Amino acid sequence: MKHTPTYDLECQDLAKNFGSFRAVKGVSFDIPSGSFFSILGPSGCGKTTLMRMIAGFEDPSGGDIRIKGKSVLGTPPNKRNVKMVFQHLALFPMMNVYENIAYGLRCNGVSSAEIKRKVHDVLERIALPDVAEREIHQLSGGQKQRIAIARCMVLDPDVLLLDEPLGALDLKLREAMKIELKLLQHQFNTTFIYITHDQSEALVMSDNVAIMNQGEFEQIGTPQELYHHPKTAFVAGFVGDSNRWSGTVTSSDGTGGQVETDQGLPMTFSAAGGTKINEGSKVDIFVRPEFIHAIRANGANKSSADGDNRLSGVVDSLLFNGANSRVLVRAQGGELVEADVTLTGNNDIKPGEDVELVWSSRQAMCFAQNGGA
Amino acid sequence: MKHTPTYDLECQDLAKNFGSFRAVKGVSFDIPSGSFFSILGPSGCGKTTLMRMIAGFEDPSGGDIRIKGKSVLGTPPNKRNVKMVFQHLALFPMMNVYENIAYGLRCNGVSSAEIKRKVHDVLERIALPDVAEREIHQLSGGQKQRIAIARCMVLDPDVLLLDEPLGALDLKLREAMKIELKLLQHQFNTTFIYITHDQSEALVMSDNVAIMNQGEFEQIGTPQELYHHPKTAFVAGFVGDSNRWSGTVTSSDGTGGQVETDQGLPMTFSAAGGTKINEGSKVDIFVRPEFIHAIRANGANKSSADGDNRLSGVVDSLLFNGANSRVLVRAQGGELVEADVTLTGNNDIKPGEDVELVWSSRQAMCFAQNGGA
Amino acid sequence: MLAQNKTTPFLLGYRLYVVTFFIFLAAPLISAGAFAFNDSLFPALPWQGFTLDWFFGDTEPKLGMFHDRRLLQGLYYSFVIAIFVAALSVFVGTTNAFLFVRGDFPAKNFFYIMMVVPLVIPGVILGISILVLASDTANMMERRFAIELEFLRPGILLVVLGQFSFIATITSLVITARLKKFDETMEEAAYNLGASRARVLRTITLPFLRPAMIAAGIVAFLVSFENFNTTLFLVGSEAPLTITMYDRMAKVGSTPVLNAVSFFLMVGSGLLALMSVLIQRDKTAR
Amino acid sequence: MQKDIKRLSLILLFAPFTLWILLLVVLPHIGMVILSLREKVAPRVYEFGFGNYLEFLHEPIYWNTLIRTGSMSLLVTALALIIGFPIAYYIAKIAGPRARGGLFLLCLIPLWVSDLIRSFGWILLLRETGVISSFLVWTGLIGTPVEFLYNDAAVIVGLVYTVILFMIVPLVSTLDGMDNSMIEAGYNLGGNGFTVLRRIIIPYAMPGIVAGCIVTFMLTAGSYLTPILLGGKNSSWFTEQIYNQFITRFNWEGGAAFGMLLLLFTSLVIWLGLKLSGQTLANTVAKS
Amino acid sequence: ETLRLLTWGSYAPDVLVQKFEEEYPDIDVEVTFSNNEEMIAKLRATGGAGFDLAQPSHDRIYAAQLEYDIYKPLDLSKINTDVLEAKLLAGVKENTTIDGEVYAVPHQWGTSGLMAEKTMAPDFSSWADLCDPQYAGKTSMRLKRTILLGTAFSMGENPFEAYSDLEKYQDILDKVADKLIECKANIKAYWKGGDDLSAMMLSGEIVASETWDSTAYKLFDQNENIVFIPPKEGALAWIDTFALPRKAKADDAAYKWINFVLRPENVTLMSGSTGAIAAVQGGKDLLPEDKKAAVNAAFTDADIDNLKFFANIPPGVEDMEGKTLEKIKAATGG
Ligand SMILES: Nc1ncnc2c1ncn2[C@@H]1O[C@H](COP(=O)(O)OP(=O)(O)OP(=O)(O)O)[C@@H](O)[C@H]1O
Ligand SMILES: Nc1ncnc2c1ncn2[C@@H]1O[C@H](COP(=O)(O)OP(=O)(O)OP(=O)(O)O)[C@@H](O)[C@H]1O
Ligand SMILES: NCCCCNCCCN
Ligand SMILES: [Mg+2]
Ligand SMILES: [Mg+2]
Known about the structure:
The complex is a heteropentamer, with 2 copies of chain A, 1 copy of chain C, 1 copy of chain D and 1 copy of chain E. Chain C is an all-alpha fold.
């Protein structure tokens, strides 16, 4: 493999074992300069371990890490130009904001005057020019967040690692910080590697997202790719909400076909992940709630909805959540199907009503079950 | 006022002062039997104080509380048949699950055999039949949650109070518990009063929601009413996401009219909250992102979108979040307007494109500014 | 109920009990302190009028504490001993904290209990056992090798070691508790920002521990200053203040000068205690 | 390399700990055991044997004193708990946040001065012509002065006073860690004040209670000055006998045996206490 | 250099120490207060180190030296023995000579006996009166060997003679113990130091007690009605001495101190502080006036003739006595 300097970070077959437990199992990826890269995966899948290897806090059991094209194996963490924002930020409570930001510069032996200039500069850039003399506990959650980033950015890192930095914030603030983080990355134009188990964070902010599961990357792609063209059942289930059925293929033509679900519902699908699915194989089918239209069974425009899959049922309950409202429909088989609805406040669907659920086979993503994935 | 037994809880002019600080300022409401009632408001607005008065931990400074029609002023907390699920659950760590649930029964002097029956019964109902002998620290977050509810429900309370019980849970679990709580309430068919500052929790679960602000109720209604027909600017801003403009009414006919925003944009609106708005008055206008359609400026069906308000701008960024994706559009005035978009993965709007934002004046909710609300 | 409704007779009674309790706590100190100002040769009623002689008097029989060489010398020795004990205990307390919070070694729990044990050994026994070991060793060395190891004989060093033997437990517990609260990612963060290990220790970890170290030092100082049981057996000719005062009381007869010393100590310790509280209420404590 | 640094620093950290525990605690106690097993047969002549322990067993004075010391220490411990618990509860749960620090500081008052001065203060208060007696005569409550000093009650008051701080501190710290909502939940579920105290607060505070009791008991059983100075003509204390063996009877061997016996006895009591309360030393004393 | 004194409370008054230091500017005096038992225990623990001059009583040297080897012989040529009262010097030498070496010379002497408030206890005269029900709750004693010996005398025994036959001595001790246990109900409290005794006596809490004479003299100063009473069985007399610890490091300074405090002008100061009579010729005349008055009020010549000097304690007796004392203390007598 040739190293072109356009990659800030390259990992190759990176692995980490804790005793006999394989936390990270040979992961490879390259991150282009200046991009926002997220690693999304369930708790315990090895995200933090991976990041700690990049930062130098864990020695890899195998594989290589290259920063700006140069392997950093053997370089101690304080010599790597990779900075990290910790989950609980790890701001130093015994120092004020200025001292926190100046810390890394002092370690590098930068002159006082230079430190002063740089600190004020970075505070300007995070739009907090006046907090230099504040103590850490005098900052709000969002301000702390930004100081933690500034503390790293003032050192001009090649890569900034962020380990679920929003995890500790409350709901409203988290929403706001999502957008803010993205803007900051634009500002500094540095490569960000962002770890999270919250899909909405990963989708909203990232240029590219890696989906991690049990120590391995399942798929790397843009948020849209992952959402609309998941390569594996795991990705389809983990990214975005989905209705999920298991079933058996009754007919298939390579790009799609017919399935009978375990509950006995017939369904048409399109093969996802680009692989042909053979007749008779066990499959999982995923359909996102927003692609299922719920129509009154006796409604006027019943047939107008476009879609080759239909299912009738009774509205069990209505989860009103403004623009993100949803109905739970109990299908004949007895199971609940979720469908997004727009509730405008007049003449909306109500619990107890008979409805018809309609969706297109193009939106029914189907994956062969291999073993028990 | 006559007391019909259909109300499990009635509060009348309930007030609480801490010294000179008025935490709750004369709040009145009635809760019908068996309903799920939420109190939603920002932090510090007095929700917990209100609940503690109902439970009997604080003496009201004024007003009355009636449970099943009978005033409970003067009844000590351990004699009120109102049970409470605390924010951090307050399960007793020195007792196991069985003892936790049995505690209240023992206090009531129920016989051992009866206690045993009831505890196992309630554990069945919360679908955790096998955890009786577990210690509290051996339970997962969601299990703890359910035990805390079971501990109250086993006592057959008239009303169950829940003070942000999901606050301590992580994101995924919180989503799951939302639906679960609602189902449990159906199961037990008991009146639930649920406190939260998370609007999505309140909207999804409740039959009725009271919006609380600075010790007062701004509005009580069903989630849909609050979302679509907010009575005050506070409610419009607090419930659901909104774009918000301030402006001055240039013409008005009682049900709607014309506004010029402070940035100079002309806009038509319909008067919300059912009050006529006079010409020349300062107003706030709210438009929810999902009612704003973003259309390519040079697109084919440019004029097809229906709506009497139009604004052109440039897509600043695109917040992909699956079904809940959103664009930030920089309007001519320079400010950002949020609009929901459905991104299907092919031919979607991209940052930098010129777009036209279109929305109907019926969706532009307008409130007169009184003082500085 | 125990906590809430603010005006019940129960709560009133409770408050009264608390007040009574604090009167109980203060009573012997007040009486010991008050007689320092009694213009009498005996620390006893009746009240003979107010005087400061027991502090500043420079002639017998009313020799004030500031002119009483023996007491001043006792004060000096107490001070020296307490300083050494505090320094040593804080040092060992700190290394113990790192050992037990960061270290990973077999039988850790057992060693931890060993660390706590000195706190529950009666002080008299600690004193005696150290005395016995030290003098047996010294005697043995003298008999076998004709070497006189004077430092093993009762004296300042043994007093310091005796007090240190259990005060180190106190400081270890205090500092360990603080170190447990330390978020280790703070060290990683510093390391990540380019600091060397030594620098991390110096600029992050130790500053974080400092309030606990100071507070532990003050507690160690106070406990050493007032220790009697252990010191009694280990003291040589350089007697610290408590021993001096005891000898004075039991072997000479007390005059209000002892009350004056008590008063002086109360003020001193009070100020120190206040200081330790102020230090612990630092910004990183939350 | 990383490993070596780790090992080295572990050894460096272990050194002070080992020196301390080995040289100042373990070896001295082994020395005591050895000494206690030497029987004196003539001046400067000793033999190995259990004579010093047998002497203890054969002489009711000694074990009576030990039992008396133990039972009075238990009484003092119980009193300290009963008196101290409400105070700790008040500090941790009822006092406002600002009063809390102040009250806590006030609790430390007895620590400001030595045992000696504390006892000295009590003597001035309690003696027949002391402050309390004089005050009571002055108020007319009693006709003639009453002696409050020189009896077991005075010893108990003095000891409770001396040790109560060590009961209150761990109690406050455990109660402090208890979420108020736990108590409220107790009431909310129908418990009255007593139930909540018995079923919730006390079980929760158990580690603190046990820690406080252990330290209090050990301090009491090991105290020397207070029982000597405040005690009356019948008030023997075991530490006093140890002192006597060493100092007045020059019988170091016997004194060492007595010391070991006191240590064994108190350890036994504590072991029993821990067993009965289901706690361990590590999660009680070490936590406070 | 430093002179480390191990001595009795009040045996090194500040005035004298200052005076000494002025005379010998290169010597600092450091004083540790102690008593006979503690002196032995301390020196035993230090192997005779840590102090430069000790002042045990004449009867407590021989056995301690035999058993623990804590003193070194004196160089009598460096002591101004001429000024010493010959009889006392001879007595002490006799008591403290081991292998031909002398280990102590006398410093001061005094007695242990009784004291009473004359108006409240006019007839007080015997050790046994302490247990007289007439004074129930109004007497005190120190639970130390003095009271054992006094009580033995009052029971018609001669304990000093029994020292040669320890079994016999044990019998006496057992009888004494019974008597004192019985007596327990009668006394108010055992005093522990001069301090609590003074307080009880002055405040009238007790009317009579076993005492050191010096304490009684001090109280006489405060209240003329409180007098020292030599018991009719004979007051017990002690001589506190000078002895050099085996590893003393400032022998010269020690000798200087000895000679210094034996000088007449210093004797008066010393006696003023201690209330004891110096073992110098004419020691009684050198007492300050008030003490002289107190002594004269207490002693007749007959009393002086009747003094019983403490006899040398043979090894093992301390242990027997200690156990007896413990027995008395532990007994519940009321
Ligand atoms: N030092 C260690 N020793 C042993 N196992 C470890 C160690 N560190 C992590 N693990 C294990 O490795 C796995 C991955 O841990 P890691 O912290 O990387 O997960 P994560 O993806 O960051 O999870 P989360 O989202 O919960 O932070 C977990 O099963 C964890 O228990
Ligand atoms: N005991 C009290 N004494 C004084 N002020 C109090 C007391 N309890 C609450 N307050 C004040 O009353 C106001 C309302 O508090 P409350 O706890 O009811 O808010 P809340 O709506 O529950 O907030 P949150 O969502 O943060 O829990 C707050 O400003 C709070 O500071
Ligand atoms: N048994 C001998 C007593 C010796 C007493 N010396 C007394 C000095 C008192 N101040
Ligand atoms: Mg992680
Ligand atoms: Mg609240």
